[in-house]
Amino acid sequence: MADAMKRMEIGDIRPGDVIDVEDDKDQVLPTSNVQANGSHDQIKASSSSQVQDQQHEASTPSKSSNQPSASNQVQILQPTNISRDHPLDHIIGDISRGVQTRSRLASFCEHFSFVSSIEPKNIEEALIDVDWVNAMHEEQNNFTRNQLWELVERPMDHNVIGTKWVFRNKQDQDGIVIRNKSRLVAQGYTQIEGLDFGETYAPVARLEAIRILLAYACADNIKLYQMNVKSAFLNGYINDLVYVEQPLGFENDKYPNHVYKLKKALYGLKQAPRARYERLRDFLLSKGFIMGKVDTTLFTKKIGKDLFVLHIYVDDIIFGSTNQEFCEEFAKIMAKEFEMSMLGELSYFLGLQIKKMKNDTFVSQGKYIKYMLKTFDIDDANSISTPLGTNGNLDIDASGHMVDQKLYRSMIGSLLYVTVSRPDVMFSVCMCVRLQASPRESHFKATKRILRYLKHTQNVGLW
Asked: Which residues contact 167 (CB under 8 A, 6 or more apart)?
């Protein structure tokens, strides 16, 4: 076939069906080889009466004649073991096309993009990625719907706060990227107390309170649901006079030197958490909810003999009731007042993986532990079955070699968060916590031992 092509002129060559010989080398053979091994093929055909030979003729017109040459013919053979192990009528698709490999799928998938798995480091990288540009447009649309600001002339006697884009990939409990989130954040560190902000305190739900709510829901057979307030901080009204710079990449062409005067809170402002909480608190109180005296992020409401309970953590809300109809009604009420996204039954909240059974609830932190092991480069280390040595004691070890205090404290902070669902490591973690002031190499090894134990027991949790 190669000799025949050499004798052709450029105008005689025509494109035909492309056959991936590397992928189909077990099924595609030139006719000349088939004729040379004719006796061998006849023996195969006689041993399996169901094998049907199919021929695929690749016609290439020659200079002198339009009839296909025998050297240009390609014959596709079906392996004999197919009909023996797999009946032909059970095979989906055309068997002559061969195996669908990843190299063939590449040409199909390269033109389809759902979300970007790469987080841009700056606005320049984000502007060249269509997925992140769409995410920034979505954030700008949120500002327009919430009537966040108005464009005014730059004040001469007032502080103007800068803005910055923050890009994060939202993941599910399995670590799969499900959404690209662009957030415009005000540079709150440039605010001046008394001029740009006043009171800033806002309550936040404690993890212990979340555990108590889970236990209460399990005891009373309450199914908990989760919802998220989209752009929660944009719903809070502010009483201070605040100006911010125009976002990078979205400056107004007609008024490039103008600034935005805020009507509502923006992410990054010091008073934004308090404004968001007050707006949500006032709305719930107006609907007949009672705020907890000890935990002000817990709201309850009694309707006859039924009880409705909800807990707030910034923009995440978990709620449930002994009457299923009240949950549906509450979701409708919240959707009318705020822009909400209903996440369904509670399964992942603040790093806790929650599995609700018929009469039981299982809480674990497998995803967080996996992330922590990767962060501290322990994911390739050998696992161990105990979190602490046999002596069960750590001393000051003044003569030991000093280690990086920042790294040691970050490991301790991560381990303390794990103790929410892992009381089995509480004692060993507290032993290491006492030595943060002057961590030594022996203390660092003890901390790594706890991480190796967590690797061995990633799926252990509270039942």
From this structure: 119, 120, 126, 132, 135, 180, 181, 182, 183
Instruction: Tell me the mean pLDDT in the region 446-461.
Output: 94
SS (H, E, C) the chain: CHHHHHCCCHHHCCCCCCCCCCCCCCCEEEHHHHHHCHHHHHHHHHHCCCCCCEEEECCCCCCCCCCCCHHHEEEECCCHHHHHHCCHHHCCCCHHHCCCCHHHHHHHHCCCCCCCCCCCCCHHHHHCCHHHHHHHHHHHHHHHHCCCEEEECCCCCCCEECEEEEEEEEECCCCCEEEEEEEEEECHHHCCECCCECCCCCCCCCHHHHHHHHHHHHHCCCEEEEEEECCHHHHCECCCCCEECCCCCCCCCCCCCCEEEECECCCCCCCHHHHHHHHHHHHHHHCCCEECCCCCCEEEEEECCEEEEEEEECCEEEEEECCHHHHHHHHHHHHHHCCEEEEEECCEECCEEEEECCCCEEEECHHHHHHHHHHCCCCCCCCCCCCCCCCCCCCCCCCCCECCHHHHHHHHHHHHHHCCCCHHHHHHHHHHHCCCCCCEHHHHHHHHHHHHHHHHCCCCEEC
- Spatial neighbors of 221 by CB under 8 A, at least 6 apart, are 322, 359
For residue 69, is pLDDT > 70?
no
Q: Closest Cα partner for 183 from 239, 120, 243?
A: 120
Please report the pLDDT score of residue 50 as a whole number: 43
Predicted confidence (pLDDT) per residue in 272-310, tens digit: 889 889 989 999 999 999 999 989 999 999 988 899 999
Mean pLDDT, residues 115-126: 87
pLDDT band at 70 (very low <50, low <70, confident <90, very high): very low
What average pLDDT does range 7-12 have in this prediction? 46
Q: Give the separation between CA 190 and CA 208, rounded to whole angstroms.
A: 34
pLDDT confidence of residue 100: 57
Rg (CA), the chain: 33
| Domain regions of the chain by residue span | 2-109, 123-355, 365-462
Cα(168)–Cα(172) distance, integer angstroms: 13
- Structure confidence at residue 157 as a pLDDT band (50, 70, 90): confident
pTM: 0.62
Q: Pick from 196, 197, 198, 123: which is nearest to 160 by CA?
A: 196
Task: Give how far the C-alpha of residue 109 lies from the chain's centroid of Cα atoms, to the nearest Å.
Answer: 20
